[in-house]
Amino acid sequence: MRRKFIYIMCVAAWLAMMAKARPEVHPVTDDAYGVTNDAHGVGVRINGGGRNVYFVFSADSAFEGAGYALDAMLQSGCKGSFFFTGRFLRDTANRDVVRRIISEGHYVGPHSDQHLLLAEWDDARTPLVAADSLMADTRANLVALAHSGVDTAGVIWYMPPYEWASKCHADVVRSMGMTPIAPTPGILTYRDYTTPDMEQYFTTDSIYRQLLGYESTHGLSGAIVIVHLGTHPLRKDKFYYRFPQLLDTLQARGYTMERLPRDNVCR
What we know:
This protein is an alpha/beta fold. It is 34% helix and 12% strand. It is globular, with a radius of gyration of 18 Å.
C-alpha cells in the first residue's frame, strides 16, 4: 500500500509542478540529440549514427582515480562527462579536482544531492521517492553545482543515483529541463566496483575484454560507458588503470571520446 501511495503521489506531484520546474531552461527533446531511451524513459544511447563514445563518471564519496583518468584524457585529447552529488561537491576536499574538471572542458552535471535510491531493484522499478522529494533533492544538487562554478542553465543531462530510475522519475527530470541518462545496457564496465569477496566479482581484465567484445559485435557508436573512479579499498585491481589503454584502443578503432552534447559554462 505504501509503494502504491508513493507512486500515486509521484505522478500527481509531477503533474502539479510541471510549470514550475526550471522555467529558464527549455527541456531537451529526445530528438534533439538522437537519444535512445530504455523502457523506463532513461536515455541509454546518444546520436547512435556517429562514431562518438561518451564516457561518464559519477561520484558521491570515493574518487581517488580522478587525476589518473583526467591525465589520460588530457594526453589523448578526449573529453568525458562527470556527475556529482551535492554531498560530494560540498566536501572541500574535492574542490580542486572539480575545478580542474570544469577548467579542462568536461561536462559536469547532477547525480542527486543525497544519492537517493529512487526505485526498488525490481523489474517494475517501483518508486521509493515521490516527485516532490526528487525535485527538491535535484534543486539542492543544482545549487551545489552552481556554487562549484557550473552554470546550471547549461546543465541538460542528469544521471540518476545508482544509474537507476523509474518512468515517473524520468518524467520529473524532463520537467526540470534535463534528460536522464544511464550506461548503455550490455556493457559491463559498471561492474568495476565489485570486490573479490562478492559472489559476482569481475576482474579488470574480464571487464576490458567484455567491452571490446561488445564493440566488435554491436559497435559503440553513441554508447554511454561508465567508469568508476572511486572504488572500495578491497578492490586492488582498479579498472581505471586500464583507461589510457582503452582510450588508445578505441581511437585506433575509429572512435572519438566526447563529452555529452552542449557544454557546461564555467562562471
